[in-house]
Structure formats: structure tokens, C-alpha cells
Amino acid sequence: MRPAFQPLLLFIWHMCLLTTVTADNVCNRPPEENGSELSGGQLFFEPGTEVTLSCSQGYSSAGGSRKITCKKNGEWTMRELKCNPKRCPVPESLQNGKADFDGIVYKTVITYSCLEGYILDGATQSQCLHTGQWSQPTPECRPVVCDLPVIPPYAKIVYDRQFSGDTVEFGFGGTYECLPPMALFGEKRATCTADGTWSEPPECKLVTCPVPIVIDNGFLSFAELREHGYKEKVKYGCNNPYVLDGTVEVECEKTGSWSRIPECKAPCKVNIERGRIFYKGLKKWIEDFKPNQVLHSESVTVYCLDEKRSCGYPVSMQCRDGQMPIPACYNEPSYTKYKFNSGSLPSEIKQCN
């Protein structure tokens, strides 16, 4: 009977031991907290038991006692060990891209992305490991590549800079030009876009302008009376003493019309018989103003009288295509006053301030 009784005793002893270990006054295994932990696999500790903590993987000690003790109430004494997460190196800057991250300590993650027109070559994320190193190297943002563009008929492209090979990178471009007398319709700029294709090319179309007109009192300089192509130019001139109002040279535009055709404007006459005028920096009696002619857009000054203040003042008038009205304030003197008392005229007396 003794052999059969021994297993029963062992079972009773084991149950008593388990009851003692799991009683309310024992301490449970201290959890991992703030980067510190307990080594080993023991789950329960009796009051008075002292254990030694260590910093968890990925953390470094920043001082403080490593010891904690199980108290009679089943709680551990306060932890004093300070453990800080390990730091990884400052990540390299990502050219033509960006790196989003909140820190560079253990477990933090960097997310990489590229700007439009660039493709990520490498990992999209990298984590700071317990070793203090990043899990992945910094990737690169490589530019999108385009084949050379198709040149439209009758056109050429002037690239921004010289290059070699038969491909170019995102952002590279040039300017389209049409061969004369063709005109360009569409986008003049050519660019390698973010999707690896070129921007829409323009068209070169034939544009002609009608035979240039002959203007009144003017002429065409060395111009053939024929239709002209886009960008071709002709020159105009005026017969003396007419003055050209507009540009001497006009150009055939892409609308099929000429730029603004100039006009020949007529000169003017100073329509007073007696008085003094001011013209091109000189004062002159009207009878000495020969020839009595003012060209289009030129100005002449006559003098009016301020009766209240008994002083004279100048008033300017401008020639506009043969018309130059005399100011209403001008009073032409009598023959007698003009001949024998000219010093009393508005042009000769004290001038108003």
C-alpha cells in the first residue's frame, strides 16, 4: 500500500505549493515598462524578493537603481531605472522627394515619397532598429525619362541645353519654331512631363497676307505689290510735309492680316494774323514765322490776357492732322495796337504766376 500512497502525498504537496505561490500577498512578474524589463521566466515572487531590472532591447540606461523589491501587499517598490530609446542617425535628405517622420528613436518609422516627375528607387519605409541603425538605406528619387519628341512638319525645336543620347529627363524641354512662312498654332513650349510623354506639339500652317495697301500722301519703300508670307515686312513713308503716324515697318501676322498700317498726317497753319507765338523754344512774331507750317503732333503756344490780374499767360495748341484750333481765350489785337503798342500785348507784359 505504501507505493500507492506516495503519489497521493506528492499531489497534496504540489497543490499546497501552488496555493502558497498564488496567494494574494505574492507579486506578479513585473511587466515591461518604460523600456525596462526583468530577465528570466519566473511568474510569481514572494514578499521580500529583490530582483534586478535591465533595459529592454532598443533602450539604453540613463541612470537609477536597477533593483525593485516585492512588498507584503503584493506590489513592487517604485522603479528608479531610467531607460531611453536608442537614437538612429539623422536621415539623409532625399533630393527631389521628402521624408516624413516624427522622430529618430527606436521603433519610429520614416516614410519616403518623391515629387511629381520622379520615381522612388528603394524602400518606401525605414524603421529605427534596436541596434540604433535604420532598417533600410535612404532611397533615391530618379527622374521620369522621355524619348525624344516628335517634330511636327515644317517645324524645328530649340532645346534648353545640349544633351546626348536618345532620352531626356523630366522637366527638360525646348521651344518649337516654324520654318518661314509657316506660322505656329498651339503651345510653343515643349516639356518632358511627369508621365514620361511630351506636351502636345503645335502645328505649323501656311499664312499669307494680302497685297499691302498704298496709303494717302505716302508710299511703300522697296516693296513688291504681292501677297506676303507670315513674318514678312514692308516699310511705309510719307510725302513731305506729311508725317507718318504709326510704325514705319509693318509685319504679316499669323492672323493673315498686316499689323497696324500707318497714316500720313497733314501739317497745320497758325491761323492768326497778328500776335506772337512760342515754337520750338523761340518766341516769334507771326509775320516772321515762315513758312507758316507746323507738322502733325507738334505744339505751338499763343498768349492770352488775364484781365483781372492784368497779366499774360501761355496756352498750348497741338496740330492734329491739319487741324489746330486757336484757343478761345486768345483775342487778336487790332492793327493799330499791334503796330504801335505791341508792348501791351499779353505775350509782352508781365506773365501770370
From TrEMBL:
<dbReference type="GO" id="GO:0005576">
    <property type="term" value="C:extracellular region"/>
</dbReference>
<dbReference type="Pfam" id="PF09014">
    <property type="entry name" value="Sushi_2"/>
</dbReference>
<dbReference type="GO" id="GO:0008201">
    <property type="term" value="F:heparin binding"/>
</dbReference>
<protein>
    <recommendedName>
        <fullName>Beta-2-glycoprotein 1</fullName>
    </recommendedName>
</protein>
<keyword id="KW-1015">Disulfide bond</keyword>
<feature type="disulfide bond">
    <location>
        <begin position="114"/>
        <end position="141"/>
    </location>
</feature>
<dbReference type="InterPro" id="IPR050350">
    <property type="entry name" value="Compl-Cell_Adhes-Reg"/>
</dbReference>
<feature type="domain" description="Sushi">
    <location>
        <begin position="144"/>
        <end position="206"/>
    </location>
</feature>
<keyword id="KW-0325">Glycoprotein</keyword>
<keyword id="KW-0732">Signal</keyword>
<dbReference type="InterPro" id="IPR000436">
    <property type="entry name" value="Sushi_SCR_CCP_dom"/>
</dbReference>
<feature type="domain" description="Sushi">
    <location>
        <begin position="25"/>
        <end position="85"/>
    </location>
</feature>
<feature type="domain" description="Sushi">
    <location>
        <begin position="86"/>
        <end position="143"/>
    </location>
</feature>
<feature type="disulfide bond">
    <location>
        <begin position="209"/>
        <end position="252"/>
    </location>
</feature>
<comment type="function">
    <text>Binds to various kinds of negatively charged substances such as heparin, phospholipids, and dextran sulfate. May prevent activation of the intrinsic blood coagulation cascade by binding to phospholipids on the surface of damaged cells.</text>
</comment>
<feature type="signal peptide">
    <location>
        <begin position="1"/>
        <end position="23"/>
    </location>
</feature>
<keyword id="KW-0358">Heparin-binding</keyword>
<keyword id="KW-0768">Sushi</keyword>
<keyword id="KW-0677">Repeat</keyword>
<feature type="domain" description="Sushi">
    <location>
        <begin position="207"/>
        <end position="266"/>
    </location>
</feature>
<dbReference type="Pfam" id="PF00084">
    <property type="entry name" value="Sushi"/>
</dbReference>
<feature type="disulfide bond">
    <location>
        <begin position="27"/>
        <end position="70"/>
    </location>
</feature>
<dbReference type="InterPro" id="IPR015104">
    <property type="entry name" value="Sushi_2"/>
</dbReference>
<dbReference type="InterPro" id="IPR035976">
    <property type="entry name" value="Sushi/SCR/CCP_sf"/>
</dbReference>
<keyword id="KW-0964">Secreted</keyword>
